[in-house]
């Protein structure tokens, strides 16, 4: 409803500007044609009317209030807060109570999008796990759960903000944590079964600089320039009693990404604001490290007897693999200022991450006994050599989203 009201208000304002501008143009034409015929008073009246129209249409009065030293000026933007000026501006320090969760693109979705990987080398066991870049599963049918929720209902984080004395620009730091886990099962023919337990940890630190512009009498616009550093770690272990097999997968990734966006700020009288905005980011400055261990018993013969030999091997990346990350982010906040020095914020943020890793480098393999052949087969099946399908050593892109709802408190100096 608020958005509809804003659209109607904007359309009406635009229509009013056009109408008054047409009037000003007609007055100018009348002055040129009848300058010698009109009296001095009539000429002055028309010129004043033209100046009044142009001033109203193109000069936006700064109708807000702020304090800069001992001088008082009439400025009250939505960023107004603070009584004590420190280092040329006003500071806010506080914390947030976060309730985040993550949704990962499942390997089954990826398999449906690119079905050719299911029949490469005659092997249907294409990777289709939910968490992790390796995305490997020992059995083909996986249940549909893919949301990672935090182990605790609320995760705390620290935040601060600096706004210069004229409220023309500001800098904000925010931290988004996520520590969660997920469990799922995989199934196969002949009542084959495997149980997976996976953990996901992510921390994102973001510094944002904003340049504030007055867009309308009751609406402000901010250009945003951000720099975010994020790292995540996933660990997944499985056990299959029917296959006599167990294993684990570990991955660590990090990236540093610049971004840019915009934000609309709507003041609420003189005690708060509503802001809505978005940002896009991209970076090739990412890296990923992985390792995978497998333990399994020997195969069965035609009589159902299992060979006594056991197999164990480990596959891991030698160096940090180059990773490219891109994404989009949208957020909205309701901020209330109480007694000029206590800010309460209710907000939500949705961030989507798309990432791709170049895995053309040969991994390091550690195998015991005759396990080397199984390890080499595993590398071929689960690496970019198998998945890339003509992508020059890169897998298909993976993606996940992080949604965060939070309540914050800031003390405003």
TrEMBL record:
Where does this protein have coiled-coil stretches?
24-56
The positions making up the signal sequence are 1-19
Q: Which UniProt keywords apply?
A: Coiled coil, Signal
Keyword Signal attached = yes
Protein name per its UniProtKB record: Outer membrane protein
Recall the taxonomic lineage recorded for the source organism. Answer: Bacteria, Pseudomonadati, Spirochaetota, Spirochaetia, Leptospirales
């Amino acid at each position: 409803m608020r958005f509809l009201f804003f659209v109607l208000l904007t359309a009406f304002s635009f229509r009013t500007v056009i109408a008054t501008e047409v009037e000003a143009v007609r007055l100018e034409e009348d002055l040129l044609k009848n300058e010698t015929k009109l009296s001095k008073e009539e000429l002055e009246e028309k010129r004043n009317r033209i100046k009044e129209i142009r001033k109203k249409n193109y000069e936006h009065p700064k109708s807000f209030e702020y304090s800069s030293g001992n001088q008082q000026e009439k400025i009250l933007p939505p960023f107004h807060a603070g009584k004590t000026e420190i280092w040329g501006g006003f500071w806010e320090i506080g914390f947030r109570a976060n309730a985040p969760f993550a949704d990962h693109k499942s390997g089954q979705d990826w398999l449906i999008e690119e079905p050719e990987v299911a029949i490469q080398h005659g092997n249907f066991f294409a990777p289709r796990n939910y968490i992790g870049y390796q995305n490997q599963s020992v059995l083909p049918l996986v249940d549909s759960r893919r949301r990672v929720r935090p182990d605790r209902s609320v995760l705390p984080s620290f935040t601060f903000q600096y706004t210069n004395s004229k409220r023309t620009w500001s800098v904000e730091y925010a931290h988004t944590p996520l520590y969660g886990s997920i469990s799922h099962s995989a199934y196969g023919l002949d009542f084959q079964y495997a149980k997976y337990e996976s953990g996901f940890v992510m921390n994102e630190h973001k510094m944002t600089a904003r340049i504030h512009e007055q867009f309308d009498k009751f609406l402000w616009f901010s250009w945003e320039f951000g720099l975010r550093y994020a790292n995540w770690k996933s660990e997944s272990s499985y056990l299959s009693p029917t296959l006599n097999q167990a294993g684990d997968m570990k991955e660590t990734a990090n990236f540093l990404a610049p971004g840019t966006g915009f934000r609309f700020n709507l003041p609420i009288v003189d005690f708060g604001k509503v802001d809505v905005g978005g940002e896009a980011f991209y970076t090739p400055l990412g890296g990923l490290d992985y390792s995978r261990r497998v333990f399994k018993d020997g195969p069965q013969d035609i009589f159902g007897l299992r060979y006594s030999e056991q197999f164990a091997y480990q596959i891991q990346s030698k160096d940090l693999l180059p990773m490219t990350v891109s994404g989009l982010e949208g957020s909205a906040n309701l901020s209330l200022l109480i007694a000029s020095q206590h800010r309460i914020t209710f907000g939500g943020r949705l961030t989507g991450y798309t990432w791709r890793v170049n895995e053309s480098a040969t991994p390091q393999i550690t195998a015991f006994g005759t396990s080397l052949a199984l390890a080499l087969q595993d590398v071929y099946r689960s690496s970019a050599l198998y998945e890339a399908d003509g992508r020059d050593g890169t897998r298909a892109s993976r993606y996940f989203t992080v949604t965060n709802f939070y309540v914050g408190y800031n003390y405003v100096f």
